[in-house]
Amino acid sequence: MTILDEILQEKEKEVSQLKTTYKPGQYQASYEKRSMYDTFMTSETMNIIAEIKRASPSKGIINEGVNPAEQAKQYESYGAGVISVLTDTPFFKGTMEDLQAVREVVKLPILNKDFVIDEIQIDRAKDYGASVILLIAAALPKARLAELYAYAQENDLEVLFEVHNEEELAVAKEIGANIIGINNRNLKTFEVDLAVTERLATQIDTNEILLISESGFRTADDVERIKQSGVKGILVGETMMRSGDLQQTFSELSVRL
Ligand SMILES: O=P(O)(O)OC[C@@H](O)[C@@H](O)c1c[nH]c2ccccc12
């Protein structure tokens, strides 16, 4: 069984619990709506989705003691375009309370980073103040992905549709995803390779589709390399969480497009 299978098995349990305990509409966070698609498509510098990530299955503990609100405020002040908050608890040590705490202190759009398999998680993301959700092509059959994509749209949420290979990219296109994230990390083997973005990007019309490259970014050279592929945004977790000087990290990664 791959790690993704394990995570999805846990998610099934979490979701069936959630269905008995969570009433959609409970929180209704108030926040200003901004479209990630519109801002990223028109920006002249590389857009950064900065992630709050305490731990991961591939790296173990990264920064367990982080204060999500303080970290997010710094991300916002140094120029992040979106803040990603990992809310999976068993494998990433995140919580919905982390997202809530971030929502209270920043104006930026928030990506609720989790393994979405059911509508109720989308309701919850919206209630807590997320404006973008993640759908992972490898996690579900195409028909189910299409339903969840439509449900997010009906709820005014943007979708970062994550792919890792040609078949998944074909699904993204069939569903009509306008924001595609190419994950450089293989969720089954953890191998990270920026060449995955370079290979798949050739099959994407980046004038129409907002292309995001996810995982493995450390240096300005990494970003310079990937921007040639038409990438307009990068998703950065570990490098942000381990940075001793976030201002410096942001100025290095925010290359001109
Ligand atoms: O820490 P990194 O290598 O910068 O990666 C961030 C992000 O791309 C990664 O956390 C991620 C991408 N897709 C995911 C799906 C689920 C959980 C996590 C992820």
TrEMBL record:
Keyword Amino-acid biosynthesis: yes
Pathways per UniProt: Amino-acid biosynthesis; L-tryptophan biosynthesis; L-tryptophan from chorismate: step 4/5
Superkingdom, taxonomy of origin: Bacteria
Span of domain Indole-3-glycerol phosphate synthase: 4-253
Record's keyword terms, sorted: Amino-acid biosynthesis, Aromatic amino acid biosynthesis, Decarboxylase, Lyase, Tryptophan biosynthesis
Reaction(s) this enzyme catalyzes, per UniProt: 1-(2-carboxyphenylamino)-1-deoxy-D-ribulose 5-phosphate + H(+) = (1S,2R)-1-C-(indol-3-yl)glycerol 3-phosphate + CO2 + H2O
Protein EC: 4.1.1.48
SUPFAM superfamilies: Ribulose-phoshate binding barrel
Enzyme class at the top of the EC tree: lyase
Database matches in InterPro entries: Aldolase_TIM, Indole-3-glycerol_P_synth, Indole-3-glycerol_P_synth_dom, Indole-3-GlycerolPSynthase_CS, RibuloseP-bd_barrel
Alphabetized HAMAP family for the sequence: IGPS_B (MF_00134_B)
PANTHER family, alphabetized: INDOLE-3-GLYCEROL-PHOSPHATE SYNTHASE, TRYPTOPHAN BIOSYNTHESIS PROTEIN
Family: Belongs to the TrpC family.
Protein name (database record): Indole-3-glycerol phosphate synthase
Organism: Aquibacillus albus
